[in-house]
Amino acid sequence: MNDIATLRRDLAAAYRLAALFGWDDTLYTHFSVRLPGSGEPRFLINPFGLFFEEVRASDLIVVDMQGKVVEGNADYNVAGFTIHSAVHMARDDAHCVIHTHTLAGMAVAAQDAGLLQLNQISTEFHQRLGYHAYEGVALDLDERRRIQRSLGDNIALVLRHHGLLSVGASVADAFYVMYYLNRACEIQLASTGGGQTCSEIAEPLSRHACEQLQGAEWQRQLLWQAWLRKLDRLDPGYRN
Questions:
Q1: Is the entire prediction scored with pTM above 0.85?
Q2: From CA 214, how far away is CA 51, in angstroms rounded?
Q3: Contact (CB, 8 A) for 123 and 210
Q4: Rounded to an integer, what distance in angstroms lies between the CA atom of residue 232 and that of residue 211?
Q5: Per-residue pLDDT tens digits for 122-141
Q6: pLDDT tens column, 96-119
Q7: How many Å apart are CA 176 and CA 162, to the nearest integer?
């Protein structure tokens, strides 16, 4: 399987897995992956109008940095182009970008304090999570500069009053980051919603745990292969 075919397969798998995990929002939100090659970046993204559970590798369209569809016969979500092109233009290491509107993610995005250091999972995002102020639906290309500043060199971004965004060197990386960022948000809602007082992990210990959790690329790849096997058992049509 060549590199582009693998990227198509992995990105389609990410959409199907997101549907399986309940991360989808009808026709909205979007994942992208930058294509290899020199010159101006181009990226794969979902065509607008398909549920995540319907996306196949062959359905993905190729878009350039001017917003032109250079491969495929479908259109895309304009807000998706604004968000994803912003990241792909600014971060050479962010080959994959995942954006979600999950219930837990949107709830934490509305909380003043953002993601709290309440559990081991949240420590992975200690000082590695940016915040972007809400500006309305992302239709203004000028917002790209501010998204880039908000993300900085972080692995993820909370879009205030909107949702979550993760980046990674591969689909496997970005999906792993989103899975655990969303899980940290779910744990936060469960912890703070029961009426009990919650205590945060002390900053030095959060920093220590974050350092311990980094550098496990091989584990992320093992997990991604396990997710692909799960998908192949339940919903193999993503490969088409």
A1: yes
A2: 33
A3: yes
A4: 34
A5: 999 999 999 999 999 999 99
A6: 999 999 999 999 999 999 999 999
A7: 20
